Structures are given as C-alpha cells and as structure tokens.
Amino acid sequence: MSRVCIVGAGFTGAVIGRELAEAGIASLIVDERSHIAGNCHTERDAESGVMVHRYGPHIFHTDSERVWDYVRRFGEFKPYVNRVKTTVGGKVYSLPINLHTINQFFGMAMSPAEARAFIAAKARMDIEDPQTFEEQGMKFVGEELYEAFLAGYTRKQWEIEPSALPASILKRLPLRFNYDDNYFNHRFQGMPQDGYTRIVEGILDHPLIELHTNCRFEDLTEDFEHIFYSGPIDRYFNFDLGRLAYRTLDFEMIRADGDYQGTAVMNYPDSDIPYTRIAEHKHFAPWEADQMEKTVAFREYSRTCGPDDIPYYPVNLVGGVDLLKAYQERAAQLKNVTFAGRLGTFQYLDMDVTIDRALDAAAAYLQQRAVA
C-alpha cells in the first residue's frame, strides 16, 4: 500500500503526519538534520543544565484556541510573558515602544493622551499609504523613535535599507500608550515545560508514522501517494530558476556564572554593535531559572544565507517577487505535492500560524482523498 511522504520533521511535518495517521494514513517523515523539531529544536545544555533553543528564541503565543488546545495535548505549557529590552545609546529601554519607552526617551512624564498627541505631532502624517518599512516607521512613530529603535536593528537584521523592505514587516509591531511591556497581545502565551522537541516527539509518536532523520528527500526512491514539502520551494525545483533570498543566523555562545543580563532578550539597534541581540536562555524558563548556578547566552548575528547555510527568514523585497511567483506557478501545476511551512510557502510564519496551516493542509488533503 502506498503512503504519504512528508519532508521536514518540524511542526509543519509533524502535525500533518499526526493528522493523517489519526485518519488511518501511513506516512514517512524525513529530515536531513540529525534531530526533529526543525528550528524550534530545544535541548539541555550539559554544562549549565539550561534548556537551550538551539536555533534562537521561540516563544509560543496565539489567539487560536484550536492551536493552543492542540499543542497542550502533547505537553505542559508554563506561563511565560515575553518582555524584551533594548540598549540604545548606552541606555536600556523596554519594547515594544510603550508609554515608559516614550517618556524615558524624551525625558518626560506624559499621560497616555499627552503621549498620543505628542507622537502624532512627530509622525509623518503626509505618508498616506506606506509601502516600505521606512515609510511605515516614519508614519508609525516619527523620525526620532524610528531611527533609535527600528532603523538600525532592521539594517543589521536584513542588511538591506529599510526603504527596500515592505511595510508589512513593521505592521507586526505594536505601539502602546500605556505601560504594558508584554511583547505580544495574544490571549494564550507560554513555554513548553520540557522544551519544544518533547512536544514534537509527542506529535510524532504514532505507529503509522515512520521517521528518518539524517535523510535527504532527494535520496528517496519510493513512490508516494502524495508529498507534503516543507523545505525551501526553490530547492524542490533544484534552484533551476535561481535561488530565492533568505537570511541566516550565526550564534556566539557566552557562558557565565549566575545571571548574565537579567532578562531573556536584549536588543542592540545601535549600528556600531555588529550583533542584533543577546538571548539568555535560562530566562525562557523562569520556573527553574533560580536553580541554575550557571548560565548560557548567545549573541545573534544576521547575514545573507549561502547555499550551505540554514535558511531562517525569507527576504521579501519591494517589487522583488517575480522569481517567487515563477516557482509558485510551477508548484501549482503539481497535483500530488503540497508546499507547506515557512520555507515551502516562502513566508514568515509564527509557530501558531504554522500549526494552524498544517492542520488545514491535512484536512484539505483528507477531504480531497475522500471524494477522489
């Protein structure tokens, strides 16, 4: 009996495999890495005991009750609020930009109404329909806050002028006229008590799922009923139209005793500092942080993704979508292949959206199969 092939053992592949398995459909899930959970992979650091997010911080947040209920089927989530700090010009501020940030930056003590009027006077209201990151930033907070908190960080993160990036990147960021420094607005927020890898292990734990790590899709010879592909869409086509642009990350480890920086994430927007942020991973598990005598943190450097690097972020340039459209048109012609996940769809997707779309992709396939 033929089975389904699922490429990638991150959340996308695991969720699709589990949904199909519970419907009685067997699948082979392959991942070329030596581990599961993709870029969400977590593991205990042997020296410190800290649960490390190997590919950078992942905080679970969602407004979807379906997704929240789904992930908690496979492990306990502890409460966690993401409170990001940023060092600008030698001073520490809170993010996202809120009333405390505004008052501290301008040396004032404004009320919410006063701050709202103050920022409105600084904002570029002549920009009616922002198309670029820069235009959105100027309309969003005005030149001073934009240059201090957003422009430099963005240049380092993307190595592209903000005027060449789409406004949609900045539309994700909130601006608050109160003292709320919870980075996310979502109803459900938390961290898996035993790490994301344990969650994905639970999702994959089904007799109809066969898992192969250290296995490339290109090396398979079996004929499959259907393929769910969560790798880079341009790689599926052997890059024959050219390579899509991605950003990758390098991490520089810091080991220390006690508490290194006093918070989970400290951003560094200043242009004279080469890294974008430092993440101290014990603070992602506050329920156990005080038990850790040692700590581990990582400086994060963003750069262009080369052929042998791990792709993290799709680069969507203003007006630069022709190559992507060409690949998407080719993908649409394939009857037995579904492209999914961040890399398969060439979109920046948070974990909750990834899971939600994986559930939808599995449901669509099951419905299509039922009427075939």
Automatic annotation (TrEMBL):
<comment type="similarity">
    <text>Belongs to the UDP-galactopyranose/dTDP-fucopyranose mutase family.</text>
</comment>
<keyword id="KW-0413">Isomerase</keyword>
<dbReference type="GO" id="GO:0008767">
    <property type="term" value="F:UDP-galactopyranose mutase activity"/>
</dbReference>
<dbReference type="InterPro" id="IPR015899">
    <property type="entry name" value="UDP-GalPyranose_mutase_C"/>
</dbReference>
<feature type="domain" description="UDP-galactopyranose mutase C-terminal">
    <location>
        <begin position="149"/>
        <end position="348"/>
    </location>
</feature>
<keyword id="KW-0285">Flavoprotein</keyword>
<dbReference type="InterPro" id="IPR004379">
    <property type="entry name" value="UDP-GALP_mutase"/>
</dbReference>
<keyword id="KW-0274">FAD</keyword>
<dbReference type="Pfam" id="PF13450">
    <property type="entry name" value="NAD_binding_8"/>
</dbReference>
<protein>
    <submittedName>
        <fullName>UDP-galactopyranose mutase</fullName>
        <ecNumber>5.4.99.9</ecNumber>
    </submittedName>
</protein>
<dbReference type="GO" id="GO:0005829">
    <property type="term" value="C:cytosol"/>
</dbReference>
<dbReference type="Pfam" id="PF03275">
    <property type="entry name" value="GLF"/>
</dbReference>
<dbReference type="GO" id="GO:0050660">
    <property type="term" value="F:flavin adenine dinucleotide binding"/>
</dbReference>
